[in-house]
Amino acid sequence: MRVTPSDADRRQLDRMLGAAAVTAVDGTLRLSVNPDRAADINDALVGAGIKVSELRPVERTLEEVFLTLTGEAA
Fold first, then answer.
1. Whether residue 73 has pLDDT greater than 80
2. Dihedral of the alpha carbons of 47, 50, 53, 54, in degrees to the nearest 10
């Protein structure tokens, strides 16, 4: 997900989902949750005054899929 970055965003998500479910990566926050929760997460963030510019599932690359299928280490 992409949000206007702030510590408040991270704290809100930590409260909602638990700190272990939220990771900062390259200017984004990655959430380890079921994608079916996207609408509820978005509603809660917007309700807390957090502007969400993108919320989508992370897609694996073809290489990641191949390595998973073949059991190769990355």
1. no
2. -70
